[in-house]
Amino acid sequence: MSSAADKPHLGRIEIRALLKTMIRIRRFEDKCAELYSQQKIRGFLHLYDGQEAIAAGIVPLLKAKDRLVATYREHGHALVRGVPMGAVLAEMFGKAEGCAGGRGGSMHLFSKAHNFYGGNAIVGGGLPLATGLALADRMQGSEAVTVCFFGEGAVAEGEFHESLNLASLWQLPVLFVCENNGYAMGTALARSEAETDI
Ligand SMILES: Cc1ncc(C[n+]2csc(CCOP(=O)(O)OP(=O)(O)O)c2C)c(N)n1
Fold it and tell me: Ligand 1 test: best mutation among 44, 51, 120, 123, most atoms within 8 Å of CB?
């Protein structure tokens, strides 16, 4: 049970900054949707509408050395992490100036300079990647933390259980963030998961 005292107390400046970040993501997604319907962006395009608060709230808390792993719904995470908007958009167009050299597209944004490890199209695929990054940091004596965003659809994958087990067993510096939007793409939670209390 959480009480009012447990809730974070944000001032006007912090609240405005959070809202500004959320609106920046939404405006970007709106533009992507427009360009996609004009067939200027090709391939797949998964938007982050309605989930902006998650990236806006968590990503700014990371330090530069920390690492971020996301899913194919990752435009917002990349923007908040500081990947330049032009480099993200160029990636959608498959241009060499894109953050992944134009080879990844919407689902595979990547930026070593920002410790941004995707953009992963495989559901659950980011979890072992994040666990491995955290293990590498541990072995190298780094204090970096890896944050791994994933959808609740990944909970049905074996990789989810393997990754959380190892991360817990070895006490690895990885933070798993489940973005539960109630649907694994078009499949409602109760139709795909025996346990709906994610
Ligand atoms: C290993 C794997 N199995 C199946 C798919 C096909 N697939 C694409 S999205 C999706 C649902 C993912 O749901 P969730 O993780 O909750 O993400 P969201 O609904 O937010 O997109 C599936 C099954 C895939 N990309 N990878």
Answer: 123
